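Action item from last week, closing it out:
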Amino acid sequence: MVGNSWVSSLGGPLIVVPQSALPWWTGGDSAHGSAEDRDDYGRACAVDGFIGLIPVGEQHALVLGDDPADTMYLPQERSFLRWLAADREEDLVGTARRALRGGVRWDADEDVTWVVDGPVVLFDAAWSGSDLELEVAGHRVIDLEPGTYRVRAAQHTDDRNMMILVSLLRA
């Protein structure tokens, strides 16, 4: 059972959008065209790999792709933890924190530069920014300082836990 700090997906990618760009995120609209052409959700689904950037208004959103895993933000580590497999939440979080202190083998292909203008919001890419204002969807506001971040990702496993870690490093 996941606690209140986790954000879940309806089956597609999660996305992290600068709060200032929420009005431009339209989410999913299945009424027209192919998934990649019809809406923002389709653009998020088209991202290949654990992370990717897509434009939203004048900003860029960070897509947490590859798996619709429940995700939480670890503020002290400035990292996202994506739950792939674990018996207990406490074990998963503990393993993630230990790994982030030096045990992660970062994937060289999963490394992007992301510029943000302040707080960002983690939510299911299917929701629109206006849905979040109405509090229809589960989401988390993350206080990031404005600036440039190196974002890198890796899958990490130990004997009982499997996760994707996404780290935000100030550039």
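Closing note: The helical segments are 35-38, 40-45, 89-100, 129-133.
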